[in-house]
Amino acid sequence: MTSQVGVDTMIKSQSKADIPLPKPRESDPETVAAEIIERLTYGIGKDAKVATPHDWLTATILVVRDRIIDKWMESTRASYDTNSKRVYYLSLEFLIGRLMRDAMSNLGLVEDIREALGSLGVDLDLIAGLEPDAALGNGGLGRLAACFMESMATVDIPAYGYGIRYVHGLFRQQMADGWQVELPETWLAHGNPWEFERRESSYEIGFGGTVDALVGVEEDMRHVWKPNERMIATAYDTPIVGWRGERVNTLRLWSAQPIDPILLDAFNAGDHIGALRESNKAETLTRVLYPADATPAGQELRLRQEYFFCSASLQDILRRHLQQGNELADLADKVAIQLNDTHPAISVVELLRLLCDVHGLDLDDAWEITSKTFSYTNHTLLPEALESWPVPLFERLLPRHMQLVYAVNAKMLIHARKQTDFTDEEIRHISLIDESGDRRVRMGNLAFMGSHSINGVSALHTDLMKQTVFADLHKLFPGRINNKTNGITPRRWLMQCNPGLTNLLRETIGDDFLDDAAKLQQLDGYAEDTGFQQKFAAVKRANKERLAQLVASRMGVRLDPDALFDIQIKRIHEYKRQLLNIIETVALYDQIRSHPERDWVPRVKLFAGKAAPSYHNAKLIIKLANDVARTINNDPSVRGLLKVVFVPNYNVSLAEVMVPAADLSEQISTAGMEASGTGNMKFALNGALTIGTLDGANVEMRDHVGEENIVIFGLTADEVAKIRAEGHNPRATIEASRELSQALSAIQSGVFSPDDRNRFKELIDGIYQHDWFMVAADFDSYAQAQRSVDQTWTDKASWYAKTIRNTARMGWFSSDRTIRQYAEEIWRA
């Protein structure tokens, strides 16, 4: 294997004058059209007369890519020449979606490419819709990472994103009689023209084995880890283009390769399956995002994945740092590593191992460098979501790392003991080893201890972190927790997904908002303007027609674009309370049938999202939504006043259609449980009214858009905590609410599941017995809020004034603002 250092040395040995730089390509339509034909002919081997739409797509991507590479190399040269500080963003997910339109838009090439393809008889929109949606993420965490990568390039921060090149990623979701079915996502089946394999950036990754201790001449003890299992991590780079193409950064994803692809002795002896076991083991590692961890084998695979990509990334980071002539002692001055949740937390002890065992530093010096280099973003207040690993599993797979965990733990606990006001209980909470049951390594605590900065992702979430999951660590390190409220990139989530609204904004307030989302505030003065409201409404209706066409083509369900489109799209989880939405839908259904004389607002309830394969209740909620949809949509007595649709296989591309079409955005999580949310920001930016609890970033959204322009209901986080502490009697709450009682009874008794009347009994029993997610407690408030939405909808001038103000006042929630705060306050980049 050729080392990266060797390649770079060979390049540096040549005079720069000997290597002429390529001339940047022109982008006029005539030049672009000629290059597309050239790529089609010589890159794909197709005559234009017989080229398929996929051939045209690939040729167009390659032509766009050439223009990105010019900027990419320019950005890389500038970073090397200045030896500037780099940011490394480690994330198990990067939900980047389709890249062609994003890249064309950021480079200002959309119209030139459209004209070039049109001259060749090809429709840009048709081929752009064929691009696979990269299956590299699950939900908000992965999409946030993608937004951050684009914003880092936009605000000119040299950065790498590091993750895994999943062959299948998250599953493709289909419905079989209303049940979720998981199928492999085959986004890489025909290659990926955006990526570049970097064989020279390959690193050995080990698992298992033994650790030997060697005593040096000065009695210093060195440790040598001898893994009994090894594989190779090989880099694949994808360029990430910033707005107007001023900087192009790198998303580096790791693929696992066996050291010995085939054991020839075994193969020749007839053991054809056994001969490939090393190859299969490596390939398995990077096949699937979030393998089900309900079994020991699933847990082991997930831990292997996390260590694999973290070790490869850190080896790569140290190699680059030293190659540029820097010292390890200066690592934190040149490198900032951001851990996106606890998945990459193993990086803390891996960097310790590399510094101590490979580069010869002592533990105290290595720990000081490590804690100054890392920072950690927490995304959850759910204790079960803060990863922990059984000690026997951790020690078997990573024996040297287990030693370092114990060493760090001793260091931290001794430090805590010196703080005389720490109780034994607080010491137990701080420990890296949870001993309340089977002993487990706490990855959240490890990430906290090994980082100089720990940030929440909304003001409320950050305050709650200090009071709940990290209360004792916050007491030990009181200055470390800070807030960085999430944001979204307006390029993807306004300019690209909603060109109709973008064009209307440009002709109304000019182009300044394209470069600074805060300038959207200028739209505020048009909120009451009747003429502008009509144009705004026309854009919204066109977006709803587009979504209606998608639903009709995929599902055969006809939607009325004049109805209120009420949309909840996100990962299916009990705390996100799709169940509350469905129960209120059932109650509304009962009311429409019981009171046909009332003037009901026509409403379409749209759901989308995936449930984790082993999450029984989440999958049951999907089935309930589909069963309710089947009953309501086939009932003529509803007269088209209510329709329910669960759209399968939610991904970025589907969100880009659903978000601009929403009239009402459902952000109804149990207060105190959603860290931030970014879907709420996307909807509001595109002119939807939010109905939600005071949870996550909803609190700050209310403050920015004005409490009269958002619909807030339900218990606050403090009230939820108080009710849980004092005891909640959900049965009494249910019996006091006629609508809720009737809706729960209908679901529980099998009205929507005549083929299995007990299907949802256990799900509803959970509400009666404990109602942990406060579905019953918040139902009446939610139902009342929904009827207030109906009243506002009937007053169209009031409705559009509110939704226009949402668009106008959402500029602060740009991920550019968030990244600037990270850069100034955490990374010092």
UniProtKB/TrEMBL annotation:
Protein source organism: Rhizobium halophytocola
Q: Give the UniProt keywords, A-Z.
A: Carbohydrate metabolism, Glycosyltransferase, Pyridoxal phosphate, Transferase
For the keyword Transferase, the answer is yes
InterPro entries the UniProt entry points to: Glycg_phsphrylas (IPR011833), Glyco_trans_35 (IPR000811), Pyridoxal_P_attach_site (IPR035090)
What EC number(s) does its UniProt record assign? Answer: 2.4.1.1
Write down the CDD domains for this protein, in alphabetical order: GT35_Glycogen_Phosphorylase
Per its UniProt record, what SUPFAM superfamilies does this chain match?
A: UDP-Glycosyltransferase/glycogen phosphorylase
- Family, as annotated: Belongs to the glycogen phosphorylase family.
Identify this protein by name.
Alpha-1,4 glucan phosphorylase
Chemical reaction(s) catalysed: [(1->4)-alpha-D-glucosyl](n) + phosphate = [(1->4)-alpha-D-glucosyl](n-1) + alpha-D-glucose 1-phosphate
What is an example of a Pfam family matching this protein?
Phosphorylase
Q: What does this protein do?
A: Phosphorylase is an important allosteric enzyme in carbohydrate metabolism. Enzymes from different sources differ in their regulatory mechanisms and in their natural substrates. However, all known phosphorylases share catalytic and structural properties. Allosteric enzyme that catalyzes the rate-limiting step in glycogen catabolism, the phosphorolytic cleavage of glycogen to produce glucose-1-phosphate, and plays a central role in maintaining cellular and organismal glucose homeostasis.
The cofactors it requires, by name, are: pyridoxal 5'-phosphate
**Class in the EC hierarchy, top level:** transferase
> What GO molecular function annotations does the UniProt record carry, in alphabetical order?
1,4-alpha-oligoglucan phosphorylase activity
